[in-house]
Please model this.
Amino acid sequence: MRNLLKLLYAYHFLILFILLEGLALFLIIENNHFQRSRMLEFSQGISGGLYKQVDNFKSYLALKETNQALANENTELRNKLASIRKIVKEKKDTLFDTVSRKTLAYFAAKVINNTVQKQFNYLTLNKGTNDGIKKDMAVITAQGIVGVVIGVSDNFSTVQSVLNRDFKVSVKFKKNNQNGSLTWNCLSPSICILNDILFHVKVHIGDTLVTTGYSTEDVNPAKHTPLVPSAFPEGITVGTVQEFDLKSGNSYTIKVKLANDFRQLNYVTLLEKLTKTEQQELEIKSEHD
Amino acid sequence: MIRYFSQHIGNFILLILLQVLILNNIQFSGYINPYLYVLFIILLPFETPKWLILVLGFMLGFSIDVFSNTIGMHTFATVLIAFLRPYILKFIAPREGYETGTRPNLKFFGFEWFFKYAIILVLIHHFALFFIEAFTFHQFFATLLRVILSTMFTLLLIVLSQYLTLKR
Model:
């Protein structure tokens, strides 16, 4: 003990220096959005390669379930296709040209790392800028929403999961379009909390919630950009109502069971809203007027 | 002694105010931001305990950070030069060492020594600061250019301020 104290005293200058610099670095990464995302990108580049190896093995074990899920999706798509064919046959002469008004672009990616137990959960995907992935793209699966891309390196991207304290998305009831904002309460990886639904709305257990595509306020208060169009297009499934109460006065607190099982994410789809900047520009312009 | 002490506290406050109220608003062509506040670390007396320089460096950097909304960045750079100062002083010491009663300024050691001393500290400080700000070595030379131009401007201000206080 005495020797330890002696040692501490002998190197007190160096130790104090390292402590203070460490504190400064911690403050930088904690408080500055830009440095934080750069740090994420950097660590991603290193950890991404490793996770990829681990995941190769894991996904081999999950092949059966993946196959099943794909088969289900195929069936569903075939059914939709069949019904569309029928409509097309009926209205062949008055068909609209939908290609030139394409508003969404799709990308497929694989989850190579994912956490659900922290307060700030992130996913890592095996696609990056080289594959056309950009920041702020929406991440979904056939079941429902997953998150939003917040950092991209050449070959990997980081996704802020719905299970993240900073995550916020505008959602509505599928049946009557009443909307509110969905956040995560950091407790269970399958439950989110929906606020802002007023007391006069009739809520039932099992009601389906979908995204609105509305703008939400930016979560980063340092950069005061008032409106950021939601990364999600309208109508992506979010989950179902599991429990609700009216304790807090005139609006409901609704527990939403998420449609996705975040512990078992494997393949995801990324969506790019091609008209997003246009929407943002218009909204900002209207706000200034 | 107390006069001496209060003079440095006065320096501390004056330099922070000068930095955040005036110099932070100066930005020529996006490259040049002078950071005169490092002068405080430069002018601390030789006898200051080393740990105290670190603590003062931390306080100085943090105060600047709070006012310029860059939490941590100035702190990092300032603590770094506070750490390196004793070694640099040793490195550029005159042959007979530093006499007691002298202070590290232009008046006691002349232009050449002071300029050498200041340029090393300012360059290290600005280098650390601008690279922490950019947080990448990606556009190394663009950042380096900013470091060099700002260093020149800061040095100019430091030398000017030395000549101004010398007269008194």
Summary: Residues 33-61 of chain A form the longest helix (29 residues).
